Task: structure prediction
Amino acid sequence: MDCSILTGESIGVPVTVGDHVSAGTTNLLSPLVIQAKCLVAHSRLSEIASLVEAGIQSKTPIVQFANAIGGYFVVIVLLLAGLTFAGWATFSLELAINHAMTLLIVACPCALGLATPFTIAIAQARAARQQILVKSGDVFEHLQQPGTVWLDKTGTITEGKISVVEYQGETELIPAILAIEKQVVHPIANALLRDLVSTGELSETDHVEEVNTLPGYGVCGRINGATIAVGSEKLIEKMTLSISEPFKKQLNRYHQSGLTGIVIAVDGTVQAICAISDQIRPDASIAIEQLKSAGWKVGILSGDHVEVVNKVGKQLGIPEEMTFSQISPEQKLEIVKESSKQETTIMVGDGVNDSASLAAASVGIAVHGGAAVSLQAADVYINRPGLLGITALMQGAKKTVRTIRLNFAVSLSYNIIAAGLAMSGMINPIIAAILMPLSSLSVLTIAFLNPAFRVDQP
Result:
């Protein structure tokens, strides 16, 4: 069974009579007779969907600084206008009305109101052009304080597809291997068919006969009277295959390297082996180093095997205590929830098994090729391969918040200086009417000059 939609494990899982199979998983080989044990509303996928909904609803939107002070601004301006009128009324009623009106004209809440949404809107538009889709401006604020970045393995750190990384043995066997593998539907068969370069084709008189799939082991068949078996290392014991010492040592090396060994036997003797793996993305190491340099802790949350996950973590310099393997979607959710209580937590994933964690994290990031439910749960969708989009998002977020703060400083400074000039009688209503739109224009100009997510920026 292909259980990757729930576990993230890239290699099929064998099942036998009495085993539990979940809705949403894919049968790869033999016909199955299954008994439904619960309604769809109580299935594993529905439970994960419920966790996603709960995670989204539990998020509290960050109240923007402008919204917090906007209400007070009007009250303060009205009070200052009253004080201006009262102060100047002792000298001249005409001057009192003139200066109070000047204050009401020149004081500009528009600049304060535009500072945040306009800067965020421009940043979101530029990020979208770089295939980084940010749903909410809250994301930029969350990314200011470094915390922990949790990465899913399959499809996020790795390519998400099995590839043949090495073949050792007689190349004359390859056409026969491909002929056998064409008879089955399986991720490993697909990898062999895609990556093994055939040195020739079987002749028209060569027929593949008696093809049998051995769930959890491999596949075997007969070509020109010879029995050819292709499968995992467990096939050696299953079919009592003889294997040479050099091949044994090579399979050992594959195992230590976190690779999966495949054996090819002819008439009971192993004559070739190959290694398959879900390859790490080329930019993964660079992206993780950049995250660490920026002060973030990086960890792996994966449903895959311990040896595979630990090997990936070691290759990328991730500490063993930050590497979690063979964990369920519910366990991922608990780890993310606990982490979120202590610090800013980012979850990066692509599958249904990541969706609840994406919704519960401070910022959930779905990566290129993700499942629909993960895109719904995430705050950000990076629609380009690799992990460097994450570092681009963080750099852009810092620049965007810096621009927002600059806009606030400019807007508040303008209002303080303008109010002082109006109250002291140094400007009249006409000058005030000219100055007022200039404050909004200055805020818009600064927002446009925001360096975040520019094409010429890293």
Q: What stands out?
A: The two ends are 42 Å apart (CA to CA). Residues 151 and 300 are 5 Å apart (CA to CA). The chain has four domains: 4-50, 65-120+399-448, 131-158+281-393, 161-279. Residues 54-63 have pLDDT under 50 and may be disordered.
